[in-house]
TrEMBL record:
CDD domains documented for this protein: SDR_c
GO terms, molecular function: oxidoreductase activity, acting on the CH-OH group of donors, NAD or NADP as acceptor; quinone binding
Nucleotide-binding as UniProt keyword: no
Pfam families from the UniProt entry: adh_short_C2 (PF13561)
Single GO BP term: fatty acid biosynthetic process
Family: Belongs to the short-chain dehydrogenases/reductases (SDR) family.
Organism for this UniProt entry: Saccharothrix carnea
Database matches in Gene3D superfamilies: NAD(P)-binding Rossmann-like Domain
Domain Ketoreductase: 3-179
Protein keywords: Oxidoreductase
InterPro entries: KR_dom, NAD(P)-bd_dom_sf, SDR_fam
Protein name in UniProt: NAD(P)-dependent dehydrogenase (Short-subunit alcohol dehydrogenase family)
Length: 244
């Protein structure tokens, strides 16, 4: 029957691809997203359960996690892919609202989702695996993305703390840190050749990632083959973090 796997941001590019891959390996997938229609489209396609979840909101997260457990049983896997960039701008002029909005989704959201799912996994006593979607930007600055990169660096810290604190329950917590990936989040900027070219030039393997580059690694971290791996933030970046 596979495990119950919850994917936040499951209606989006990366989350949708991972939800699809988890279903293909036999997991019973809960597709959780702020955009319920997007979640329902993915869930319908893979035979999963769609739930509305605003990761910024304590009650919304608890309600969605409760519905997942109530309908499908104990959660074995969480992939937390919900995230936003929230525009771009230099730190000297970035509006405070933009900074707060990104932190609310990417940091508060990671805290609330990890806490809620970690709690039900610990209570069930069966262990589990949590995979956060970070960003190569959490390690490497790009002009105009400081607000986003700060939020992902905080996500990395939460990943490590959760790994340490949940290890006694047999729950592993890791993250993957992609460089740029072709998804609806990046479609707008990557459609502009003047933007795309310098992004590709930073990547030694000379191409933007696709979701197919990410999903197998997330599935590996979410499997027993990674039984002794916890607290890592794994770059999937075509070598971008090597610098040039
Ligand atoms: N695409 C990239 O280049 C790239 C690179 C590195 C990291 N990431 C990270 O990967 C993750 C997924 O990105 P993507 O490219 O698939 O983006 P996307 O915009 O295609 O999908 C993100 C999903 O998150 C959902 N979401 C947004 N706010 C939410 C909230 N408050 N509560 C619940 N769901 C919410 C959206 O509705 C959307 O379905 C994000 O965390 C992003 O930061 C993306």
């Amino acid at each position: 029957m596979g495990q119950v796997a919850v994917v936040t941001g499951g209606g989006g590019g990366i989350g949708g691809a991972i939800a699809t891959a988890l279903a293909a390996r036999g997991d019973r997938v809960v597709v959780a997203d702020l955009d319920f229609a997007a979640a329902a489209r993915v869930a319908d396609a893979i035979g999963g359960l769609a739930v509305e979840m605003d990761v910024r909101d304590h009650d919304s997260v608890r309600g969605a996690v409760g519905k997942a457990v109530g309908e499908l049983g104990p959660i074995g896997v969480l992939v937390h892919a919900a995230g936003v960039v929230g525009g771009a701008g230099p730190l000297l002029t970035l509006p405070l609202d933009a900074f707060d909005a990104v932190l609310a989704v990417n940091v508060r959201g990671t805290f609330l989702v990890t806490q809620a799912v970690g709690e039900v996994m610990a209570d069930a006593g069966r262990g589990g695996s949590i995979v956060h979607i970070s960003s190569a930007g959490s390690f490497q600055p790009t002009v105009g993305l400081g607000h986003y990169e700060a939020s992902k660096a905080a996500l990395n810290a939460l990943t490590r703390s959760a790994a340490l604190e949940l290890a006694p329950h047999g729950i592993r917590v890791n993250a993957v840190a992609p460089g740029p990936v072709e998804t609806p989040l990046t479609a707008g900027v990557l459609a502009d050749p003047a933007v795309r070219a310098p992004w590709v030039a930073r990547i030694p393997l000379r191409r933007i990632a696709t979701t197919d580059d990410l999903a197998p690694l997330v599935l590996l971290l979410a499997s027993d083959q990674a039984a002794h791996v916890t607290g890592t933030v794994l770059p999937v970046d075509g070598g971008q973090l090597l610098g040039s």
